[in-house]
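Changelog-adjacent note: as of this version, every example in the card shows the full chain rather than a window. The one below runs 124 residues end to end.
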Amino acid sequence: MKILIDMNLSPDWKAAFTAADIESVHWSTTGDPRAADTEIVEYALANGYIVFTHDLDFGTILALTRAAGPSVIQVRTQDILPSSLAKTLISVVRGNESALAKGALIVVDEARARVRILPLERNS
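Full-length structure tokens:
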């Protein structure tokens, strides 16, 4: 499992993932910090990464394109620092490894994690 940390999250997340034996890279060390979200999605898909973000646009991209990947983890909390959220997030990642491997959108907030398998279907 490899995680691509979006620009809107601290590079400190890399250390949190490393401590949990999860390979990760922060986008600032990989691509243009001003890159469009679609470019980040394309990179993640081509290179086998799961996108970790605080940005709602990635879920929108998956919904509009009905793409089967890449998997995306969206954190929807006020405090997005690893010092506050790493334990919860790592637990969610570990508990959903098979879904992430197949393609999923996971939204994590203070109360729960919601998992949707890709491609996202429109609600009737």
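Structural remarks: The longest helix spans residues 82-95.
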